[in-house]
Design goal:
55% strand, 11 strands, 4-stranded antiparallel beta sheet, mainly beta, 121 residues
């Protein structure tokens, strides 16, 4: 029933920017916190950031100056904008939806299949 589908990935040149989208079916974004994650080959999954049910984003400190996460609840769409791309940003990027925790965190219940982003120098 629940599907999250990422789009917008592909080949990007270093120094450029990208915008990824995640469209959901079977889940209403306004009832969930959401997030973007990535995983590079041979490395652990990394949290890029989350956005809560009222639209407030929280970005990893290492990326706060170049990453924006937003959502369009009416369209059930989540967005990731990343600027100043580096080869180290090459990874599979995942969107996810989950439960807002009382602590302020977000426990992810649903995951997209991921989309490849390749940043070339």
């Amino acid at each position: 029933q629940v599907q999250l589908v990422e789009s917008g990935g592909g080949e990007v040149q270093a120094g450029g920017s990208l915008r990824l989208s995640c469209v959901a079916s079977g889940v209403t974004y306004s009832h969930h916190c959401m997030g973007w994650f990535r995983q590079a080959p041979g490395k652990e999954r990394e949290r890029i950031g989350t956005i809560d049910r009222i639209g407030t984003p929280t970005i990893a400190n290492s990326m706060k100056d170049r990453v924006t996460i937003s959502r369009d609840s009416a369209e059930n769409t989540l967005y990731l904008s990343m600027a100043s791309l580096k080869p180290e940003d090459t990874a599979v990027y995942f969107c996810a939806a989950g439960q807002q925790l009382s602590s302020g965190g977000c426990y992810m219940n649903y995951w997209g299949q991921g989309i490849q982003v390749n940043v070339s120098s």
